[in-house]
Amino acid sequence: MVRISHISFAPVLFLFSFSATAQPATYQDFTFSIPQGAALVDGEPSYFSDIQMQATVEGDFAVVAAEKNNLVTVQSVVANVAESLPVQVSLTVSGEKSVPCVELLEPAIFISDAVFTIVLAESTLGPAESCIAVVDPFETTIALDTDGLDSGSYTVRVNGVETSFEL
Questions:
Q1: Is residue 126 a contact partner of residue 99, using CB atoms and an 8 Å limit?
Q2: Which of 51, 84, 100, 148 has its Cα between 20 and 30 A from that of 135?
Q3: In sequence order, which ranges of the chain are alpha helices (DSSP H)?
Q4: Same domain, residue pair 79 and 100
Q5: What percent of the chain has pLDDT over 70?
């Protein structure tokens, strides 16, 4: 469990992810509980689960606890651009999870200028769980929201592996 006494939101981009099967974020007893979130700190991606933020007397929130998830190893990223209206872009991502007993988490997608940064992490094993220590290959598809983007060249980074596409 990562414990953080206070975090400034100015230099950090946060993305909180809520998938259809996950519990939504809740606020109770001055604590904001967020099931999953990702952050870019100085361009470096991180992914967290079970984030706890407490209200401060200044009226903002301080992160008081979060479990850091392992990022999966990405080996290849292929951009697929469908010649449709509107243009649809998806990524085929291949790589390895650390063990077969974990699941891929919902990808966190950041966009800044013409760069998509995608953070792809895996779930953690529970304290009583054990798993054979062998890497587990995966392939997944990630849709990119390109509505409202200008024509041009875009870069995509998934856990440090880069590709590009044209709109």
A1: no
A2: 51
A3: none
A4: yes
A5: 87
